[in-house]
Each structure stands twice: as C-alpha cells, then as structure tokens.
Amino acid sequence: MKLNENYILKNIAGTAVVVPVGDAVNDIKGMITLNGPAEIIWKGLQNGKNIESIVEEIKSEYDASEDVIKNDVDAFLNKLRTYKILVD
User: Fold this and answer.
1) Do 56 and 40 touch, CB atoms closer than 8 A?
2) Rg, Å, the chain Cα set
3) Cα dihedral angle (15, 50, 78, 75), rounded to 10 degrees?
4) Could you give the CA distance from residue 45 to residue 37 in angstroms, rounded to a whole number?
5) Which residues pair with residue 65 across a beta bridge?
6) Residue range of the domain that includes 40
7) In total, how many domains does the chain have?
8) What is the predicted pLDDT for the residue at 37?
9) Residue 69 belongs to a domain with what CATH number?
10) Which residues in the chain belong to E strands, given as ranges?
C-alpha cells in the first residue's frame, strides 16, 4: 500500500492535517484532520510499515482491544481508498 503523493501530512497548531496538493486540490476541498490513531496509521504507511505493526503501535498507545483497533484501521484505510488517497 502506498499513499498518493498528492496528499501531504502537516502539523498545524499541534494538529495533524492532510493537505491536498497538485491535482488533488480539485478532488478534496480543504484539509483532512487526523486524530491520534489516524496519524499513527498515516505515518506508518509513509514509512512502509505493514498493517500488523501499525496495529501494534496503536495498541501500545491506546487502551483498546486488538479487534477494535483492527476494525478502525480497516475502516480508515477503506476511507482513504474511497478518496484515492491510498493506492494498493
């Protein structure tokens, strides 16, 4: 899995946001705000981590069951695919 290079992660006033650039500006108007787990997923994908290691990292940071985390990660990845931000 690879992130579309037309979306970049920025930190604005302590908040992680994804900003469209180039042609993506026409696809999404504005920015996408990421919560803590979503930021971990994004950075993990940027660094070429697999889903299992991303899930483990979130599990070490947040008090949630592995099943809940896996479901949330899958939901976020599917949302990224819907907007063509994640390329398989």
Assistant:
1) no
2) 13
3) -70
4) 12
5) none
6) 2-87
7) 1
8) 98
9) 1.10.10
10) 2-3, 7-12, 15-20, 32-33, 86-87
Residue with tokens 């919560």: 35
Give the CA angle between residues 81, 51, 77 to the nearest 5°: 20
- Percentage of residues in the chain with pLDDT exceeding 70? 100
Residue labelled with tokens 């299992």: 52
Residues 1, 58: Cα–Cα separation, whole Å: 18
Sequence-separated (6 or more) residues with CB below 8 Å from residue 4: 24, 84, 85, 86, 87
15 beta partners = 12
- For residue 79, what are its two tokens? 């949302």
Q: How far apart are CA 18 and CA 38, in angstroms?
A: 11
Residues 25-50 have pLDDT tens digits of 888 889 999 999 999 999 999 999 99
Instruction: Report the distance separating Cα 50 and Cα 21, nearest Å.
Output: 26
pTM value > 0.90 = yes
